[in-house]
Amino acid sequence: xxxxxxxxxxxxxxxxxxxxxxxxxxxxxxxxxxxxxxxxxxxxxxxxxxxxxxxxxxxxxxxxxxxxxxxxxxxxxxxxxxxxxxxxxxxxxxxxxxxx
Length: 100
What we know:
Layout: E1 2-7, E2 14-18, H1 21-28, E3 33-36, E4 43-47, E5 57-63, E6 66-71, E7 74-78, H2 86-98
Pfam families: DUF3846 (PF12957)
Protein name: DUF3846 domain-containing protein
Domain DUF3846: 2-95
C-alpha cells in the first residue's frame, strides 16, 4: 500500500492509500499515462489521456518548457514508487495552489 494524492476537476486534492495498479486505474477512469511537470521534481502524474477534451480541464502542467492541460482525475505519485511524504504532499498542494 502506498500513499498518493488524487486531484479531480473542480475539487481539492486529497491523500489516499492505494493497494495496486487496479486502484489507480479506477481513480483515473481507465488506463493511464505517466506525465511529469518541470516544477515537480521526483513526483509523477498519472492521468487518463482518453479523457482529453471530454472531461473538464483540471489544471495546466509544463513539461520541457511546453504548457499543456491535465484532463480528468490525476493521481500524484513519487517517481520511485514509494509513498508520498507529508513534505511531498505539501509540495503538491503548493504546486496546485500556484495553478489558480
